[in-house]
Write a structure and sequence with these properties.
Its main location: cytoplasm. The protein is α+β, with helices and mostly antiparallel strands and 1088 residues long. The chain has 20 helices and 53 strands.
Amino acid sequence: MAEGEWHETGRIHAGGASVSALSFDSFEELLWVGDDQGHVTSYIFQPESEQINSYTSRNVVAGPCRQLLAHDSAIVCLGQNSIASMHRRGSMKWTLSSDNFTDLRSICLTTSFELVAAGHQNTMSVVNIGRGSVVKNFECQGDVNVLKKSRLLCCGMKDGTVQFRDPKTLKIESTISAHSGGIVDVDVAGNLLITCGFSIRLGQSVSDPFVKVYDMRTMRSLAPIAFPNGPSHLMFHPRLASTAVILSNNGAMHISDVGNPVGIAGFYHVAFEDGCSSMGMSSSGEIMAFGDSTGTVQLWTSKGDVKVNPYSRVTEVVSLPDYVPVRMTGDDESTPLSSVGMPYYTEHLLSAYWPSTRTYVVGRRSPQVPPEILRNAKYTDFVGYAPNTGLYRRNQVYSWATRGDAPQAPKFRSEQHREKLFGRGKQKEEVGSPMSKGPGNMHQIPEIYKKVEIKYSRFGVEDFDFGYYNKTQFAGLETHITNSYCNALLQVLFFTEELRTVCKGHVMTDCRREFCLLCELGFLFRMLEDAQGTNCQATNFLRALSTLPQASGLGLLEAAHLAPGPTVAYGSLIQTFIRFILEHLHQESNVAEPVAGKGGEADGNSSAWPSSKDGLSVIQQLYALHMTSNSACQGCGSITSKPIAPFVLDLVYPKKTSSNLKPSFVEVAEASIRRENVTKAWCDKCREYQLTVQTRILQEMPQELTINCAIQNEDNLEFWIDESKPWLPSSFAVVIEEGSVKVRAVQEDTEFESEADNVFLYSLQGVVSEVIDNKTNHLVSIVQVEEKQWALFNDFRVDLVDQTEAQLCAKWKIPSILSYKLLSKDRTLDLSGMPQEANVKRLIKDMTVVNKRKFKPSAVPMVITEIPKEPGYLIAIDAEFVALTKDEIEIRSDGSKSMVRPSQLGLARVSVLRGQGINKGVPFIDDYVVTSEPIVDFLTEYSGIKPDDLDPNISKRTLVPLKSAYKKLRLLVDLGCKFIGHGLSKDFRIINIFVPPAQIIDTVDLFYSRVKQRFFRKLGLKFLAWHLLKEEIQQNTHDSIEDARTALNLYYKYLELQQNEQFKSTLDDLYDIGNVFDGFSVMRTQNV
């Protein structure tokens, strides 16, 4: 033990409330005290004055403060239903609440920037300390009383067991049974674990008179320590690893050597008035603090001159400003105050940091009441009234202040059409403030960065004006789709030209995987290319992502997180996603043989992908950093090497120092590339675990360099925020020389010698950033879309911006992923083995996943001579859908309803008919789509789909996977076919395919009158068939072949009417009939 005997040196009266938590600060000379009313007070030790003074004090959490945790940048306080973080100077950083926080009991640091919170609840949560957000939630088997961490995370459970979990994955590695009646306290030091708790005797719970000791290497119990008084608090001495302090509620304290439990190093008695409630010891091991239920804190020491920490940093204290007398420039009262003048400020005033959510318009000043009214006024209490003099109109209110050019939400298309026809106002063309054309504001979120939401009218999502948010030729991606947080990164991948070529080429192969992300990316990239500014959806890609167990295991699916809001760390989530997606694309592109599937035989184009001469996949050629990893054993000196090829470079920031000199980006990047780690690893030569130094030697740089910013706390963020100039360079060079690497900054206006084989010059291509908002966080990307042209992609909102917008960072705009493109090398991918066009044989083959087909198919596949040779071939199409989710409806307080999110529909059947030739009207595709997702409604009344139709075991239909049906439609679009149908825009939207408008002939638009009185009415297929074709369709249910054939006949009827110059009169007659008989249904007009 330390010299001298332990003795009481003073007492602190923290208040009348019970002291529920004590913690000595590990970084400064402070003691933190929390009580059972949520109040936290800090006390500063000042050796020069030999006094302990109050430093800060404030209410932090509601209810009792259950634990205090001193972190490098903040103090974390645990409440029953919340976790709060505060600066040491007393101001709050954040408060985190969650539906999962029902009864928190303990928190514990797992890394330098994350902690684990658990309690008597079903979940165990990982919290990012810098942001105050829940990173992940894990299922917790049992109620947790105490958390402590050494090599493993030790969880003292309510049922008396101790669970040992992996600190990274939180998976249970081992479990021991310590006390039958429950755990009270645990502590760990190295490989030693000590526990105290209760035992069950004769059906009663009594304090266990032994402190259990365990060796965590073997998970075996050692000799226990007898403590007859009943232990309630345990703590290892921070300087003496095997020495433990054991305390009971009545004040009996033993200081024992765990290695020699028989001998007692010290026996003391702490005089409590009403029992011990908390205990703590400083990191120096020189001070102990004991709190009781009366609000008193006792301080004990074993020497005279004591310190809380061996090396503490200076605590920030308030300094009083020097008094400067105000001198007025005048001797009389007529001297204006403005003559004093104001200083010239070089920094932002405090008013610049005031959040926009705290400011509001106070309104106009009330006009002055005329004296003649006041003279005749009578008052009742404080309310005055007077007769009207006849000069004022009754029941008038004061006018509101004009809103000027404030941003407005877009009006629905139906409203715009109505106002246009009746000559009303015109909708504004621009959204947001002028700053949308330049660098973002450093303190407030500009309009172009704010989260955009889709609003739904009674006409559905088709009535929403997406064009209001996008005036460019670059397509945005819609929200309100599960896992749509990926939108920002998908835009960066799309504008990576080589990857776009690879994905589009993979679509041409005969890939038989039902859920292939490489295929889905190829389909998505084709849509974004063809859309030319029209909004698109990543529905099929995100649906395929949700089926992958690896994505679920990594927590990439939004269902595994909290509801979207300010507590979801999307920055960390998207960084995990980029590592996963590149590794998964590498595995999919590296297959050597076509993958067998149920959809039929291969149709000619092998899915084997061309590799380089070194056997590298195309993804490795594009993204991999080729390195050699060396591990040097510190015991025997042996070195083992192995090649590695990570796809992403994670930035590692240096620790904050007292120096004001901030390292540059290239210095941080260089240190991140050649970083070394010291860890324990198995040595084959020593035959035991030894300290091992791991180093990485860079061999080759990739064509596309992807960097994870890995901003975990405010210290990391300080590197990025610089209001004078961007910290992120637009270009830099990497030089590899004799096993070492150097990263150099390159100015845009200077030439750099990059022809050497060891020099790699990179230029910024795109940035994915997290926008921190009070309501909900989200991701945006800024991408170089063309030469010297940049665009901001905020889901379906797209704005052209400057390059500096991508380089700037603010507290509300935190970069997550950087994409750099190699400029200095002439590298090309060898794609000679890739098919250049899709194989048309899939149109002449009949494929199905039905186990035993004993029925005649309803479609007759094309023969090779029917395959369209020239664009313009007519085909008729109709699709049927099933509901995968239900509508989300919000019911307001007045009883009105609002659509929050419509039901998600999935393709169930698609029928395509020949539109010309001798077989006109004969279907060549009639595919039913099998799905692995649960179906909440088959919509049989509208779709004609029955449950048996989509069951492969009993179905009598041609069942195919979604990708098989999609590939056929994609091929028909690429062949230039013209699609004829009724209401095709909604069908193509749900199928998630973009068809150029020139290839669509929609009978809804052909038979549509734009006369002012009738603009709101579009005619149904059943109504048109009855009156124009004299046919009755959809008698009992819908049939897609019948609907497609009817649309085809209506098109030819339209051509006939146009040729005979009868179309206009016929259309007017149709609307007249519908209006006269109060509706456009067949039943109401069949007698006309």
